[in-house]
Design the sequence.
């Protein structure tokens, strides 16, 4: 059985919807296996929403993932925090 790492990430202040953010991450070349929304924000944007990203085990650290997501997200979104669970 293949082992995976799961990262919980919180999206910062953004005007983009969570669907746009997840779609953008899916188009990236990041080494994820699965991505899903864990919790919604209180408004219609992705601000403060939580996303779970599953990667193959030991392929990327939380710090590297945050840096790459923030570079890729640019002005569309920024990741506030990432916790490996």
Sequence:
């Amino acid at each position: 059985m293949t082992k995976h790492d799961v990262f919980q990430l919180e999206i910062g202040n953004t005007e983009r919807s969570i669907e746009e953010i997840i779609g953008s991450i899916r188009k990236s070349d990041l080494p994820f296996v699965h991505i899903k929304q864990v919790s919604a924000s209180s408004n219609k944007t992705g601000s403060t929403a939580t996303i779970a990203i599953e990667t193959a085990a030991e392929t990327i650290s939380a710090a590297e993932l945050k840096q790459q997501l923030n570079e890729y997200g640019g002005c569309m979104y920024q990741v506030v925090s990432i916790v490996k669970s």
The longest strand covers residues 4-11. The chain has a mean pLDDT of 90. Residues 11 and 79 are 5 Å apart (CA to CA).
